Amino acid sequence: MTPDVGSAVTIGPLYRSDAARCAQLERVLFPGDDPWSAQAFRDEIAAGHHFLAARDGDALLGYAGLAFVAGPPQPEAEIHTIGVDPAYQRRGIGRALLLGLLGVADAVGATVFLEVRTDNVAAQALYEAEGFTVVGLRKRYYRPSGADAYTMRRDPKQ
Predict the structure, then answer these.
(1) Which of 38, 99, 105, 147 is deepest in the core (most CB within 10 A)?
(2) How many whole angstroms separate alpha carbon 43 and alpha carbon 66?
(3) Which positions fall inside the N-acetyltransferase domain (predicted)?
């Protein structure tokens, strides 16, 4: 089930040509924690990882990426990134992107992991609402800020 993000917002594939806009959003969203460069986005897409975009017409409002890190018989995936333009947050876009990634993981029965800053209460609440639980703590995970991260896990939906 995809939340209502407004009739003009669509969720679809992220393209290499979106990399500069993604990097721009990263600098706004994660200024103290080594935001991804445009090249990092291009490399992740080229590697075949699953990336989604939220758009309003031609405007890129958000992005999300998932990588499979283990295959059958016990597939595992990691959510590498989710970001939404601050002007469009709290409208269900982040949840729609997350649900899109989880649908891909669930299709192959993958357990999904992610890291989230311990001080990012809004993101933690979103992840918990979608079935993630905290399974670990990574001290000084984010660089260069040194912020801690929780590792969260979600079992596949059958």
Answers:
(1) 105
(2) 13
(3) 9-157
Question: Is 115 a residue of the active site?
Answer: yes
Catalytic pick among 76, 115, 130, 142: 115
Region 15-34: what's the mean pLDDT? 94
**63-119, pLDDT tens digit by residue?**
999 999 988 889 999 999 999 999 999 999 999 999 999 999 999 999 999 999 999
Catalytic, 88? Answer: no
CATH topology for 9-154 is: Aminopeptidase (3.40.630)
Identity (one letter) of the amino acid at 74?
Q
Query: Closest Cα partner for 97 from 17, 25, 24?
Result: 25
Residue 123 has pLDDT above 50, yes or no: yes
